[in-house]
Specification:
heterodimer, A: alpha/beta, 11-stranded mixed beta sheet, 16 helices, 11 strands, 13% strand, globular, B: mainly alpha, two-stranded antiparallel sheet, 3 helices, 36% helix
C-alpha cells in the first residue's frame, strides 16, 4: 500500500494511525537483519500517531499524509535525534534543528519512525561504506540495495514504510530505487530545500523521495518543495500540485535516447529498459536517438567536482565543535587524529582526491575544465530538451551487484553512476521508475526532464508505471 | 597518471589526515587509477565558445540580521566544553 492509499485508509477510519505506525515499527524489527535502520523512534512516533487519531476522532482537519510513517536518511536532520551520516565521526551527534523537508512532511501529518543506514556522508553506490555495516537488498540479501540512500530504499522495498527520504548527489536516490524496484525522484536543483541536509557536494546535493508509486512521488514533491529562507538556492516559484496537474502522455510527444547511454543495446538491462518504452510508443510517442557528446565526460567531471567540494565541506569535521574527538595533547594532533580515526576509508580517499583536484598545478588543468564541461553538458541537455519532452536511459548499467563485488575496485564502483551523474551535474530533474525484471532483479528506467518540468517527467513516469505495474519480488 | 607515495603524504598533510605508512602505497595505487579516470577531462573539447557556468539567481533575502539561534545547543554538541566555551588542547605552548 503506498503513502496515498495509507493516508486514505487512516482518514476514512479503515485503520488508525496508531495501528499503522505500530505495524511499521514491528516490520522494522522483523527486518532488522537487512541493516536498513540505524535507530528507531518508537515513542515519539507512537505519540504522534496518537495525536493524529485524536484529531480525526474530534473531526479536526489533518494533513494529506496524516498518520503515514516514513524513514529519514541519516544525513537529514531531525531535532533531538541523532544525525550521524552513518559515520563514526558523528556518532552520537544530536541535531539541534529539523531539516525543512522533514519539517514540511511532519506538518503534513507524516510520522518519522527511524533513521536509515547509508554510505558514510553519502559517498558510495552500494551501501557498503557505512561505519555500521552494509545494508542488504530485500530482493536478494546477497546483493547491495544501491547507495548511498541504501537503508531508505531497503526499508521501502521491505514494506516497512511506504516512503523514505534520501539525498541524491550523483544518483543516490535513483540508483537504489532502481536496484530495489522503487520510484526515486531527484527534483530540479533548488526545488527542495537543502536546509538540514549535511553537505557532501553542495552544488549537486538534493533531497528526494523514494516511494512505491509515482503518485506518491508527486504528492511528496508538492509537500516538500518551495522557497526556504534557510536555503538561498531554493527556486522562487510556488509549489505546484503535481498530482492534480499531471499531463497525460499525448501522441506526437517525443522521447530522446542519448546515444552515449545506449552503447550496449543488447545488454539484458538495456533490453528491459527499452521494452518499458513500448507502452509510450503504443500511445503514439516518438522515440528518437539524440546526441549528447559531453556525457562521455560525466564521470570524470563528477568525481573531480564532488571530491573537491567534499574536501572543503568535510573540513568542518575536526573534533572541535561536534562529533567524536580523538584524545591528544595538541590542537594539530586533535584535528589529524580525529579525522583519521573516525572517517572511513572511502571518505578519506575522497578528501585526498579533492585535495589533489584543488592543488596548485592540477586545478587549472582539470578542475576548471570540469566546470566548463559541466556548463557545456547543461547547455547540451537543455538544448536537446527543446526538441524532445524527456530523455530516457537505464538508471544503472547493471542490476544490483553482489555485496563485496566492487568494494575493492573504486573505479568500477564509480562507473555504476555513469547514467545518473549527468542530471546531478546539470541540475535537471530525473526520476527512476521500475521498468521490469532482469534475472529476477529490478531494472529502473531513468527519465530526465527540462528544468522545473517535473510535471512532464511525472506524467511520462506514470504512463510507464500504469503499463508495467509495480514489480513483485 | 601516477600518484606517487610522496604526493599521497603531501595531500594527507594538506587534508589533515594521518595516513599510516603501510597504507601509503595502496592509496597511491588506488588514487592513480582514479586520477587516470579523472584525467580524461583533459581531453574535453572546451573552447572559447563553451558556455559559461550558469548560476540561477535565487530570490534574495531581506537585508535583516537575525540573532544567532541555538548557541547553547551548539556548545552542547562539542566533544568538550566548559563555561560556555568549546574546550580544545593548548594552541600556544606555555613556558
Amino acid at each position: 500500500m503506498d503513502a496515498t492509499a495509507t493516508a486514505d485508509a487512516i482518514r476514512t477510519g479503515q485503520r488508525t494511525a496508531t495501528d499503522v505506525v505500530t505495524s511499521a515499527l514491528e516490520r522494522a524489527a522483523k527486518h532488522n537483519g537487512l541493516g536498513a535502520f540505524l535507530s528507531l523512534q518508537a515513542k515519539p512516533a507512537q505519540a504522534m500517531a496518537a495525536r493524529v487519531d485524536a484529531a480525526l476522532k474530534n473531526g479536526d482537519a489533518v494533513g494529506p499524509l496524516a498518520g503515514v510513517p516514513f524513514a529519514v536518511k541519516d544525513n537529514i536532520s531531525q531535532a533531538a535525534e541523532t544525525c550521524g551520516c552513518a559515520s563514526k565521526l558523528l556518532s552520537g551527534f544530536v541535531s539541534p534543528t529539523t531539516a525543512t523537508a522533514v519539517s514540511r512532511l511532519i506538518t503534513a501529518g507524516a510520522i518519522p519512525i527511524g533513521r536509515t543506514n547509508m554510505d558514510e556522508f553519502g559517498m558510495g553506490s552500494s551501501g557498503e561504506n557505512s561505519a555500521f555495516g552494509p545494508t542488504q537488498n530485500p530482493w536478494d540479501k546477497t546483493r547491495v540495495p544501491g547507495g548511498s540512500s541504501s537503508g531508505s530504499a531497503a526499508a521501502v522495498a521491505a514494506g516497512v514504510v511506504p516512503f523514505a527520504l534520501g539525498s541524491d548527489t550523483g544518483g543516490s536516490v535513483r540508483q537504489p530505487a532502481s536496484f530495489c524496484g522503487l520510484v526515486g525522484l531527484k527534483p530540479t536543483y533548488g526545488r527542495i530545500s537543502r536546509s538540514g541536509l549535511v553537505a557532501f557536494a553542495s552544488s549537486l546535493d538534493q533531497i528526494g523521495p523514494i516511494s512505491t508509486s509515482c503518485r506518491d512521488a508527486a504528492l511528496l514533491l508538492r509537500i516538500m518543495s518551495g522557497i526556504d529562507p534557510k536555503d538561498t538556492t531554493t527556486l522562487n516559484d510556488a509549489p505546484a500540485d503535481w498530482l492534480e496537474t499531471l499531463p497525460a502522455v499525448e501522441p506526437g510527444q517525443r522521447v530522446g535516447l542519448p546515444r552515449q547511454c545506449w552503447t550496449a543495446p543488447d545488454s539484458p538491462v538495456a533490453a528491459v529498459a527499452r521494452a518499458a518504452l513500448a507502452c509510450l510508443v503504443e500511445r503514439g510517442v516518438q522515440v528518437v536517438a539524440v546526441d549528447l557528446p559531453s556525457l562521455e565526460l560525466a564521470i570524470p567531471a563528477y568525481y573531480l567536482l564532488t571530491s573537491a567540494e567534499a574536501s572543503s565541506n568535510l573540513g568542518r569535521f575536526d573534533g572541535v565543535r561536534f562529533g567524536s574527538r580523538a584524545k591528544t595533547d595538541t590542537l594539530d594532533a586533535l584535528y589529524k587524529d580525529t579525522r583519521s580515526q573516525f572517517f572511513g576509508p572511502e571518505v578519506q580517499r575522497r578528501i585526498l582526491l579533492g585535495t589533489y583536484a584543488l592543488a596548485a598545478g592540477y586545478a587549472q588543468d582539470h578542475y576548471d575544465k570540469a566546470t566548463a564541461v559541466r556548463a557545456k553538458m547543461r547547455a547540451e541537455i537543455s538544448a536537446v530538451l527543446k526538441t524532445v519532452d524527456v530523455l530516457a536511459m537505464p538508471t544503472a548499467p547493471t542490476v544490483a551487484f553482489r555485496l563485496g563485488e566492487k568494494i575493492c575496485d573504486p573505479v568500477s564502483m564509480y562507473l555504476s553512476d555513469v547514467f545518473t551523474t549527468p542530471p546531478s551535474l546539470t541540475g535537471h530533474p530525473a526520476i527512476s521508475v521500475p521498468a521490469g525484471l532482469c534475472e529476477g532483479l529490478p531494472v529502473g528506467l531513468q527519465l530526465v526532464g527540462a528544468h522545473q518540468a517535473e510535471a512532464t517527467l511525472l506524467g511520462f513516469a506514470t504512463a510507464i508505471e500504469d503499463a508495467r505495474g509495480s514489480l513483485k519480488g | 597518471v601516477r600518484v606517487d607515495a610522496d604526493t599521497v603524504r603531501h595531500m594527507a598533510k594538506l587534508a589533515r589526515l594521518r595516513v599510516p605508512e603501510e597504507q601509503v602505497d595502496r592509496l597511491a595505487t588506488e588514487m592513480s587509477a582514479i586520477v587516470t579516470m579523472m584525467a580524461k577531462i583533459g581531453a574535453a573539447p572546451v573552447t572559447a565558445d563553451t558556455p559559461a557556468p550558469v548560476r540561477p539567481l535565487p530570490k534574495t533575502r531581506a537585508d535583516v540580521a537575525f540573532p544567532p539561534s541555538g548557541g547553547a545547543n551548539l556548545i552542547q554538541q562539542a566533544a568538550e566544553s566548559a563555561e560556555g566555551c568549546v574546550r580544545v588542547p593548548p594552541v600556544i605552548d606555555t613556558p
